[in-house]
Amino acid sequence: MPTAWESLHFMRGAAEADEPMGSKEKWWVELPMLGERPWLLKLARLDERDGTVSGEDWAEWTVHQLAEQLGVPSATIRPAMLENRRAIISRSVLRDDFEYLDHGNSVLSARFPGYDQSVQGENPGYTPFAVRHALAEVAPPADNDWPAGFTAFDVWAGYLLMDAWTAGRDRHHENWAVVLRADERRLAPSFDHGNALGFQERDERRVRMLADEAHLMRWAERGASRHFVGQPKLTDLAWSALNLASRQARRFWVERLDEISEDAVRSVVSQVPRGIMSEVTHRFVVQLLVTNRRRLLDGYSST
């Protein structure tokens, strides 16, 4: 059974310090009742068209729940309210003060001196092949029971499979990291999944897609990354990474995805209150996940 949707409420002044990376309003908060690690409070952005909440909060919470089903380590997410603003809190992926993050752009630059860390869109050096080499001496995430011989890149390829399944389009080079602890280097759990599940679409369009399977399929097939070389489709990007990973990694991730039933997906999505996610959006998200799962598994069968 997925974790229940239970919002935590905050007042202004609870935040400690701004988080400089990214474009959302966000602050670190200490929550002793939830453990010693700090949590990043992120406000859901407002749609510039009409001031409605865009849906990044329910998208990020839902992807975290789905990541747990798939076996992808990810930052723990809880829904929240900052006074009258919808938000989420994301638990730090660092276990204590002896660890810190080295983001992907820095990891790639250390391996490839000519890599441009500052590029915000499509980066000519950003490919799964480059990431595999950059992670060559990095261990998989801690606190997971990985198959023997699993590499950090084997796990990272699973992150891209999750992105393709959930229509996550924001796997830029600062949206993954390596955890450094003394001489130890481990891939960090996945984080920052708000740009997923068609969170920005209007219900009017979702209704049209639900009524026309071909329309939904066309929408899903257009999903692409604007960060990797060539701006590849999400499914192509996932298979590119999985084909560079070990054979056991391909089998592991495909089997995990294959085991997830529509009922399991529905049980996750149904936890989001109708006041946060409309009935139409509930139905759309379930159908999108069912469609993308089928597309990915069909792609595996064809290879």
Automatic annotation (TrEMBL):
<protein>
    <recommendedName>
        <fullName>HipA-like C-terminal domain-containing protein</fullName>
    </recommendedName>
</protein>
